[in-house]
Amino acid sequence: MKKIIALSVFLLLVLGHIKVITSNTSLQAGYITVSGRWWYWIDTDDRLPVGLAAVVIYDLEPDNVLYPVGSTFTDIYGYFNSDPILNDDGPGEDGLDIVVGVLTASPAAEVIDPSTNWYYFSLSDLRPDCPDGPINMGENLNATRDERGAWRTFSVHFGLTAGWHYLYSVAGYNMPLATCLWPYGDVPSYDPATQVILMPY
Ligand SMILES: [Ca+2]
Ligand SMILES: [Ca+2]
User: Whole-model pTM?
Assistant: First the structure.
């Protein structure tokens, strides 16, 4: 279910149709900004920041469904900070009930499974009834430990992005989206027909 939500939300994000309620004005009464820092596990004891990954900010509603109210990206250190989001929780308004998700996807790269779904999607704990103003979800938001391989694969896109920038700025070639299929096969390889990078577990 989480993966289905993530897929649909990110499709909307990519297509530019996601309804993000934001304002370019400075923070004012009636708005929240949501910040935090995401990490992924590289083994059972150590973590690295989730860099340059899509972050979706949700409001939990009484039907127990998470509705996206904003989106942003982490920086290379895993930090994110949203634009202002209208803090309106509907009738009997008591502040949005915030959950933050992070996906193995960015404008430059993505990690998908053999069914072409975004491989992983982690959620923060719930912060109910947020007051107006800055909402800090904490500096220890952890992607699920069991899926650390997907996040480690996603981190490959730091290299892809650097290569992309080199091609664009030096060779004048605008490379399309790089896609990595994981887990697949026994050795890392590249399929030139589909332009997909294939990564073993
Ligand atoms: Ca709500
Ligand atoms: Ca509420």
Answer: 0.69
Please provide the size of the chain in residues: 201
| Cα angle, residue 33 at apex, residues 85 and 87 outer, rounded to 5° | 40
Per-domain residue ranges for the chain?
Answer: 2-147, 153-198
Cα–Cα–Cα angle for 126, 131, 132, rounded to 5 degrees: 120
- Nearest-angstrom CA–CA distance, 190 and 41: 26
Q: How large is the average pLDDT for residues 76-91?
A: 94
| Cα 90 to ligand 2 centre (Å) | 8
- Residues by chain with Cβ below 5 Å of ion ligand 2: 89, 94, 97, 129
Distance 94 CA to ligand 2 centre (A): 5
Q: How far is CA 140 from the centre of its chain?
A: 15
CATH 3.60.110.10 assigned to domain 2-147? The reply is no
